[in-house]
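In pairs, describe these two lines:
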Amino acid sequence: MKSIMKIVFAPVILLIWIICTISKALLQITTFLSSILAILFIISGIVSVLYGNVGYGIAGVAVGFAVSPYGIPKLAALLLARLYYLRYWLTGIVFETKK
């Protein structure tokens, strides 16, 4: 029974590992780029408030916070952490050793 589980779940664990690795690299790149974009949105929001467009300024700061590392990339990191947890959980169930 254990060997059947290893045969069935080994490709699944490998696929999850590949997805996690690619997603981690993409998350690092997009977090860097979104940080730059967030800075631009926040600066444009502050400039808009200084020129009298309070609505545009608030919207710019809100969008800047959403794309900052504490917004959408943080949500993506949490989802990626769940995927890592799934991989470790499957590995522990399938390849556990009895002592």
